């Protein structure tokens, strides 16, 4: 477990703070109980206490970790609104550490979203509604959830971040948009299951691919990638865990083990972003107008 220097003030968009902010990020690799928000809230509270004791500044929970993943017809029963009592409890927890929660969010017009909510100092600062809902193989999300329609980076006391949920990260366009929008860190809660095993490998094929793309994104865009994945079993499907942080050079900052519950934390330092982007100024040289023109051509 690696710890950071004290917090500095939050930078303006696309501008690194002169003190090169560092902060501690923890990942709660938990095994939530399917459909039991109360029991999972208790897990959240225990992990927040652990993170606060360890000096963590930002704690990330996995995708749908407040509800469990394979919800199907339970989705309306476990959904919460931004003004609900459950959200108030989460906001209270964020007074101890900044927090990313994975939950089912109900909109005022009664649509249900697979959502990640960022909270700090007792307030909701940002909501990301999952954009890419897997509906193939063992996945059936689009049957039960509405799709999100935006990718945004946002300012926090820990610098400028972006949230992407699980399958969102498999689409290179989402990370590209977040990086162009000034994110220094991508935070990705997931519920990634075991899928395929190669003979002689110490991990399943899905885990291998996740680790390949997170390393590639971190190094290509010169940012940190924080991945918080769950463990446990639901309906006979296992989740592999392996939560961790990659730095802008594609190096592992910290990593949890596979298959078992864990708490792991590491340092995110904007000085590393500066060093990487000075050495390889790809984001500086990115031609957004070219990209827009070619996308418009392809769309036509």
Description:
The chain is of the alpha/beta class. The chain has one domain (22-299): 4-Layer Sandwich (Nitrilase/N-carbamoyl-D-aminoacid amidohydrolase), CATH 3.60.110.10. The chain has nine helices and 14 strands. It has helices at 37-53, 75-78, 85-93, 141-144, 172-180, 205-221, 270-279, 282-285, 288-299, and strands at 22-29, 58-60, 98-106, 112-120, 123-129, 153-156, 159-163, 185-190, 224-229, 231-234, 237-240, 244-246, 252-255, 262-269. The strands form three sheets. It has a six-stranded mixed beta sheet. Strands 6-7-8-9-12-13 form a six-stranded mixed beta sheet, with helices on one face. A two-stranded antiparallel ribbon has the order 10-11. Helix 5 links the parallel strand 7 (159-163) and strand 8 (185-190). The termini are far apart. Mean pLDDT is 93; it is low at 1-18.
